[in-house]
Amino acid sequence: MRDGSIGYWHHTSLPRTSFDWTKTKKDEIPKIDAIGIMQKWKRETLHDWVDDMAAEIGVHPDSANHMGVAWASQYQAWAWPMSDGNGRYCGIRLRSETGRKWAVTGSRQGVFLPHAPCANRVFLPEGPTDTCALLSLGVFAIGRPSCSGGLVELKNNIVRLHIREAVIIADNDEDKIGPTGLKFNPGYDGARQLQAFLPVPSCIIAMPTKDARSFLSAGGDCDMLNSIASSAVWGSIEGPGSS
Question: What residue spans define the domains of the chain?
């Protein structure tokens, strides 16, 4: 893996947590200093490393820098900061080179909020890398932590940033069968739940490709994306589908 001083790769063991997860409730775990940790890791991260990572996942390096990504040498993973409803770092999502995803112990759930010029329309994908892809397309985006998470943080940031409308991107998940035998779709179900919670007019779209990153790599652009959103069915703040 990447060495924090010279930029080569080697394998290291991950540090052990001091908490017994089998006996400790989440609310009892002390919160981390996400701001301080990310500042330290950012100072230790070379620009070339971010450029290489961005190229590997197929996004523009500027978009990754807008997201505040840094290399966490002690975890041998890329660290993506999560923000609360006031725009302050509250947690850190980790993503290894092999695609493993987890969070730093003590993180609180937040959204992936870029330090980039805001716009009247925000796109709401899942995860930090799809958020980077949308920023690379030239639109403003805030990443959800999961298909059903981050509702309060998204709402508060939309109000705080004076955003006027939102486009929720639902992943193209296949239908699943629940314990009762009924079909459900996590991506669309989570998107509908979010839409009912948002304080601005919104719509739900699915990318014509697997996700935002594949849309970008396939030659999708800002005009195409906004055209898809503009032709979607929009719901008012009173709820989806209302007039």
Answer: 32-235
User: Dihedral sign, CA of 102, 105, 109, 111?
Assistant: negative
Dmax (CA) for the chain in angstroms is 59
Q: How far is CA 56 from the centre of its chain?
A: 17
Amino acid identity for residue 196 in this structure: A
Which residues partner with 205 through β-bridges? 169
CA distance linking residue 233 with residue 240, whole number of Å: 9
Q: Which of 183, 152, 154, 180 is nearest to 166 (CA)?
A: 154
Residue type, 171: D
What is the pLDDT tens value at each position of the chain, 243 positions in all? 454 433 323 333 334 344 443 444 556 789 999 999 999 999 999 999 999 999 999 999 999 999 999 999 999 999 999 999 999 999 999 999 888 999 999 999 999 999 999 999 999 999 999 999 999 999 999 999 999 999 999 999 999 999 999 999 997 767 667 777 777 678 889 999 999 999 999 999 999 998 999 999 999 999 999 999 999 999 876 544 443
Residue 65 near residue 58, CB atoms below 8 Å = no
CATH of 32-235, one of 3.40.1360.10, 1.10.760.10, 3.40.630.30, 3.40.1130.10: 3.40.1360.10
